[in-house]
Amino acid sequence: MDDALYLSLVIPVYNEQENIPVLVERVGAALARIGKPFEVVICDDGSTDETPALLAVAQQQHPWLRVLRMARNGGQSAAFDAGFKAARGQIIATIDGDLQNDPEEIPRLLPMLDGPDGRPVCDMITGWRKDRHDTRFRRLQTRLANRIRNTLSDETIQDSASSLKIYRRECLHGLQLYNGMHRFFPTLVKMRGFTVLETPVKHSPRHAGTAKYGFRNRAFRAFIDLLAVRWMKKRVLRYEVSEVGSPAIVSETLKKVRS
Known about the structure:
Elements: E1 7-13, H1 20-32, E2 38-44, H2 51-61, E3 65-69, H3 76-86, E4 91-94, H4 105-109, E5 124-128, H5 136-153, E6 165-168, H6 169-172, H7 185-191, E7 196-200, H8 215-235, H9 247-258
């Protein structure tokens, strides 16, 4: 971690050549508004289009931009994990690379971490895409998925899979991820004892390109992942422990005994 760096924005991308130039410009303009040092970590998840070339150009123009390149396509969970481990900021934010998450929301959400007195209010903010700009079938699919997810995992999060999220760094430190776990970040963070605030955020139509995930290639896998999270939540270790006595006093007592 770099103590001088306030924010790291992690963005996974895969074959987003139509979006990269606009994404970089909007992100830079949005984060300049926070008035604190920031970096943007774009993790290219094995793109096969012009995404790598466009990122190379953008990196020359923007000193705050860092680019990670996955050796092969590993999925969003792997890309997020790589980005989290590379991020150096005290606060870590995430969005998708398709610009359906508005980067301009980040300066609005950041102050919600702390109250007016500067004291922490929550450890993580997760965006709720309350008014989604998707097809009717996709909205229906999402509502059904969220209902099933909350029922099986005993959760109340309205939109766990939204990529617009903000974390205090400690929420993610040491977090072990597996394929598909990016859909359950609020639950995983809560399981570690941190607090989560869900708030409505803007959701925009896709700027360009096509969605990389649909009902056929994620529904069954997401359900299996949900069962894994349900199992983890029921088996998570919960206990309080404290050491009895003072180590210094014990050490002194042993010396007297030996003498």
